[in-house]
């Protein structure tokens, strides 16, 4: 009996989990290959929701998908851990030890063989080596960081409430993450009014710092301007052309010599691949640490290795680091990897089809863009169509992973949960 092909997927984000689920339903279910997903976490969250988890306006307990449960239902294996090295010559990936919260080693360093390796480890914020940022700033690149920020946010709110002081928060990065986080934090404060001991909640001052000429640079200028006006309407100070030169325990230093004080300092600017890519067997990387791949998502250095999503870079046609791109690339590999495994058929080039973009500023407003430049949202309904569209993207993601029946039940469970539990995280 022939040995099963080993397909190793590293990273359980939007792209990695979608690929593992689809390949499990084809190659895994038929016993044609063993599909193994590796992730250092035990559960998946939709990364575009992290700013909501950070603000506490969405409870993350019902929005996590267990890797073990997903694997058991869709015919793939899951192992917790982080790939710390790749031996390309022997086609082996080295997993670092798994430790408990107290530092006890649960699983020793292990080695996993592969016939095809797919890297989908996502991205993180890029501090560009700015002095003090790593030491004094908070990040929200994953659920652990989002929960950590939320805990600090709630405690600082409590301190400001007790002392009748203002809480200063500065966010660096006027892209979708930083802009939406600013709105969600104000939404959180509005919800606090419902549960505070008094009717006057703590005062909140949020400053959004963007180095470029406008916020939301990936969107048309009219959306950027409308978003700026909306943020200023809810008392967010938006500063463009604000280049950060350093950070300390009290705030940010700007290149123009000014200083922005902030109790909580959030860095949401720039995108780079995790530094672990430098240990992946000498694969070619760009300046941001992303794995350079061909248009068919295969590494330019190794025919056995593919990369997709935020950790990959196509030199001929760079794509934005968005969930939409990652999802389409996962679908492409899920469609064509079976033929590669069965008969060696090469994977064709992946063609990205832009379906537009949506940005939602809490319950305050939202806008969307369609291919060709059409803009929708805003207006008297406060961008209701765009905000609903933003929510439906998440529901679509749930249905894809759960299936139609369980996906709809998940939506129903969230609706019921919203009637029972507080509308903001309070513990």
UniProtKB/TrEMBL annotation:
Assigned keywords, A-Z: FAD, Flavoprotein, Oxidoreductase
Keyword Flavoprotein tagged: yes
Cofactor dependence: FAD
Classification via InterPro entries: FAD/NAD-bd_sf, FAD/NAD-binding_dom, NADH-Q_oxidoreductase
Protein's name according to its UniProt entry: NAD(P)/FAD-dependent oxidoreductase
Keyword Oxidoreductase included in the entry's annotation: yes
UniProt cross-references to SUPFAM superfamilies, sorted A to Z: FAD/NAD(P)-binding domain (SSF51905)
Family membership noted in the UniProt record: Belongs to the NADH dehydrogenase family.
Gene3D superfamilies: 3.50.50.100
